TrEMBL record:
Belongs to the short-chain dehydrogenases/reductases (SDR) family. InterPro entries: NAD(P)-bd_dom_sf, Sc_DH/Rdtase_CS, SDR_fam. GO terms for molecular function: oxidoreductase activity. The keyword Kinase does not apply. Keywords: Oxidoreductase. Its EC number is 1.1.1.-. It comes from Streptomyces toxytricini (Actinomyces toxytricini). Gene3D superfamilies: NAD(P)-binding Rossmann-like Domain. This is SDR family NAD(P)-dependent oxidoreductase.
Length: 259
């Protein structure tokens, strides 16, 4: 067997369809690109159309199959409508990546209902509702991959974890509940756990050079994360060779969590 064929059998996503929320920016954009370049037809979902179009144009220029759906995942109706429109592009997805997320970071004492509700809606309810919409179909077809993007703050509190840390802790529990339900039918459900990654989500924190340097020092690799660091893990978890890995939180964090 040639190495090309072996690699394709292990990791190719040819013929699969992926929906990637938050695929227009940061970690989600890097994951969407990696899945598309590995052969999947990818539909990215977020709100801002210019960013969505730019991400899809870049993939199309590389010969990838990609499309976008503009939707607000902050409301249940918005999520449900987005799911139908996304499934209407290349068909029902085999792979669902939940990367859309917000981190509003008010100090705990100033956390109000609006911040709590907005955080839970985008970070937790949207992944839950998309799972409810797509998970049973994946199980029925005997193959599926659900990948959530969690956070260190699911495991430890720092830099104002507030509602955000709560939403990510629950997201990892959601992966386990989904794995319990659907993994007997070929659907794996896992979470990727980033460290500190320089993306638009962190623009405010990123301007504090001292904190950025301190976070880099907390890793074992010696630097903060890049969106591209998630490409390999996402392709692996989305592919056929990772079928025995489920219900896990997989840290892609340069060793941030290892000490
Ligand atoms: N960067 C980090 O250090 C870090 C660390 C741990 C975990 N994470 C997690 O990684 C994921 C990706 O973060 P990132 O750093 O890549 O952030 P980012 O660059 O800000 O991207 C966030 C994405 O989510 C979309 N989004 C936000 N609110 C939405 C809504 N209401 N409806 C639809 N789409 C929405 C954004 O597009 P629109 O604004 O156009 O809607 C964008 O595509 C998040 O879940 C985040 O919590 C990031």
């Amino acid at each position: 067997m040639t190495s090309q064929r072996h690699l394709a059998e292990m990791f190719s996503l040819d013929g699969l369809v992926a929906v990637v929320t938050g695929g227009s920016s940061g970690i989600g954009r890097a994951i969407a690109g990696a899945l598309a370049r590995a052969g999947a037809g990818v539909v990215i979902v977020a709100r801002r159309e210019a960013e969505l179009a730019a991400a899809v144009d870049e993939l199309a220029a590389d010969g990838c199959r990609a499309a976008w759906v503009s939707a607000d995942l902050g409301t249940r109706d918005g999520v449900r409508a987005a799911a139908e429109r996304a499934a209407g592009v290349f068909g029902e997805p085999d792979i669902l990546v939940n990367s859309a997320g917000i981190n509003l970071r008010p100090p705990m004492g100033e956390l109000d209902d609006a911040v709590w509700d907005a955080t839970m809606a985008v970070n937790l309810e949207a992944p839950y509702l998309l799972g409810q919409r797509f998970g049973p179909g994946m199980a029925e077809r005997g193959f599926g991959r659900i990948i959530h993007v969690s956070s260190q703050q699911a495991h430890r509190a720092f830099v104002q974890s507030g509602a955000y840390g709560v939403s990510k802790g629950a997201l990892e529990s959601l992966a386990r509940s989904q794995a319990e339900a659907w993994s007997p039918h070929g659907v794996t459900c896992n979470a990727l756990v980033p460290g500190f990654v320089l993306t638009p989500l962190n623009s405010r924190l990123a301007s504090d050079q001292e904190t950025v340097a301190a976070l880099a020092r907390r890793t074992l690799v010696g630097r903060n994360g890049l969106a591209e660091d998630f490409a390999g893990a996402a392709v692996f978890l989305a592919g056929r060779s990772s079928g025995y890995i489920t219900g896990q939180a997989i840290f892609v964090d340069g060793g941030f969590s290892a000490h």
